[in-house]
Write a structure and sequence with these properties.
The N and C termini lie far apart (49 Å). The chain has a three-stranded antiparallel β-sheet with strand order 1-3-2. The chain is globular, with a radius of gyration of 18 Å. It is mainly alpha-helical. It contains six helices and three strands. The mean pLDDT is 83. The protein has two domains: 82 residues, Multidrug-efflux Transporter Regulator, Chain: A, Domain 2 (Orthogonal Bundle); 43 residues.
Length: 126
């Protein structure tokens, strides 16, 4: 079974946080749920929980809406075409852009962790 995260954790992962109060903006995720049939959280005790697969879909939706400036209708059409497998290999596709950005972020996090480990392992010579 994959790990489930609640809507507040998801909002933080997506960086949907009010800049002043630092509170998660869960209403945005709930709005997207109404617009995209691909987003279907599990409801446990009237709380929303998302699988890792759902989180990836929502990340892509956010990327296409916010970073690429697509409309909700445009994103719906792209998701409906179900061209995931073919589109991923087209270097100029929107989904490929998303995956490139995602891979770049993951790689950067790994490099940062490696640097911390290296620095931690060095002896103090002061």
């Amino acid at each position: 079974m994959s790990k489930l995260i609640n809507i507040s954790e998801l909002s933080k992962i997506l960086n949907l946080v009010d800049s002043k109060t630092k509170k998660p903006q869960n209403h945005i995720v709930r709005f997207w749920e109404k617009k995209f049939k691909e987003i279907r959280p599990q409801k446990i005790n009237k709380r929303r929980y998302y699988s890792t697969k759902q989180v990836e879909i929502i990340k892509m939706i956010k990327y296409l809406l916010k970073n690429k400036g697509m409309t909700i209708t445009g994103v719906k059409d792209l998701l409906r075409q179900n061209i995931n497998k073919l589109d991923d290999h087209n270097d100029h596709s929107l989904k490929a852009d998303y995956y490139k950005k995602s891979l770049k972020l993951k790689s950067q996090r790994l490099l940062d962790k490696i640097k911390k480990i290296k620095n931690y392992g060095k002896k103090n010579t002061s």
